Amino acid sequence: MTQKIRAVIFDMDGVLADSEPLINKAAIAMFKEKGLVVQPEDFLPFVGAGEDRYIGGVAEKYHFELDLPQAKKRTYEIYLDLVPTQLKAFPGVHSLVRTCRQAGLRAAVASGTDRVKVKASLQKIGLAEESWDTVVSGEQVKQNKPAPEIFLSTAHQLGIAPEACVVLEDSVNGVRAAKAAGMRCVAVAHTFPASRLQEADVVRIKISDVHLSDLVPGLALEESKEEVKPNE
Fold it and tell me: Which residues form the catalytic set?
């Protein structure tokens, strides 16, 4: 029998915060400063895998020599300049987090990106680090998504079995990581079309379409029973 869901693990970029366009813009600007013109779609295969792969993968595609730590640092500088005026939470994010809390679920963030970006982004959208049960970032794991390590580490920090966790993701790499961790996964098509996210257990177009019953299997049956009571 499947263990009941006790925790919700949220990816950050593309799930909580509409940050994918900003990091894309920042990385393109960084490459331009270094004399290489790249395209927005060049980054798609590396979305969700952390900035080492996000930036490094594109550099490899163009056979472009890059000091990766320095390039990542510069990309974050550009990104952090954009955050105050351009970063927003997706509509429905705050109410879904609140609903999860009201249902007695633990709530965590597992982001493949670095802490400096996670902290600034969560602060800006009004879901600061300290408001979560735990926050795990990319530099805390040896293998980033699509490897399952970041989600397994988050479950361990929560003290909850992986099969009792559900992950909210937006990327192909993130969905694969969640499933490899043995977790339920709900995907939102904020970054990729729904057709690319079919490995998830449930796919919704946007996070405001996600219901508690998508996250916790069996809850839909309980809700439907309650709904028919007035007509009995």
Answer: 11, 13
